[in-house]
Write a structure and sequence with these properties.
The protein has 410 residues and is an alpha/beta fold. The protein has 2 domains: 204 residues, Rossmann fold (3-Layer(aba) Sandwich), CATH 3.40.50; 183 residues, Beta Barrel (Elongation Factor Tu (Ef-tu), domain 3), CATH 2.40.30.10. It contains 9 helices and 18 strands. The strands form 3 sheets. Strands 5, 6, 12, 13, 14, 15, 16, 17 and 18 form a 9-stranded antiparallel sheet that branches. Strands 3-2-1-4-7 form a 5-stranded parallel sheet, sandwiched between helices. The longest helix has 20 residues. It is globular, with a radius of gyration of 23 Å.
Length: 410
Amino acid sequence: MPYLCIVKTAGKKRVVVGLSGGVDSSVAAYLLKEQGYDVLGLFMKNWHDESVTLSNECPWIEDSNDAMLVAQMLDIPYQAIDLSEVYKSRIVDYMFDAYASGITPNPDVLCNREIKFDVFLKTALKLGADFVATGHYCRKESIEMKNGKAIHRLLAGKDPGKDQSYFLCQINQEQLGRALFPIGELHKSEVRKIAAEIGLPTAEKKDSQGLCFVGKIRLPDFLQQQLKAKEGEIVEIPAKAIAEKDLVEVHAEGGSSDRSLAELTAPHVLKPEMGRVVGRHMGAHFFTIGQRKGLQVGGRPEPLFVIGTDVHRNEVYVGQGEQHPGLYRKGLFVSKEDSHWLRPDLQLLVGEQADYQLRIRYRQPLQKATLHQEEEGLYIIFEEALRGVAPGQFAAWYDGEELIGSGVIR
């Protein structure tokens, strides 16, 4: 579809809003228009295959129609663009490769980095935009440095239950400088109230779930498009089989000072001979650390959780109970090439360390941690052992409300 030919309103800053068909982006567009911006609405179609999408869960046709209705009501130009090809190459193919390699990807973080604040942003600039805006619950603050340049700060949203700054942990200063987050100062209840008061058709619409701009999917069906099912063994590892040094690190208050950073951040080494076979699975690549559902192994005093996988040997390792030491780690490692500092002026030099708060998944409470910068990368040591650390996840570190940097867990 060709781009709309729209003459820019003289004296007004132009903002292209990513209208998703949901209430958040709808209210974002309304607020921007009220603030005097020249607003355009752009809907991104990122997915065609509905065979793996759960019915009534964010179908793109309904979302597109809702976005168009909102644009008509707000009297702003509207266009839908098809980004499914680039979405497949940058997000979906990455997911397949990641799961096949035994790591746990976060497609929502990648969607923001690769689609919303890259392809979408470039499209908006071609339409004469000064900024792009989304319905994310986060805030931006810009400060002028002594050299005259601006530093942009990404801050948590005011609604603690909806803060989405984590999803933007991989964007950079240039992208953040072009971004606006109109609802970041609001709580979700306030957003819905505004939508209801002005009669937006999305006022009562449920929040979408699942993949960014795709919807809630049947993950096994989705992955089996490319990854074949392969039967293997589920091995239960008793807590006592985890190496004593790891048990000490999990339960000790301060940890052991004579262990190297590499040892403190290394994942648990699990082998079949450490436990016994308790069931079968259809592919180790379908499981991730901390997972409980889908194991189909019962008869245990406590629930079983995945504590590790080996995609090469096609084995899934499980342990009983929420406190199984295999679920916890004292630290993690981010390689130099996978480290990303949204605040490059705060990037640590080799040999430096700093205390920050950290999370490895959306809505996880921030955990105190110390970052150690070494030549090979960043070693992150938690004040208290952290549950469910899986390779491929994004670790994001904060200074209070501000997101400072992030990286892919090795």
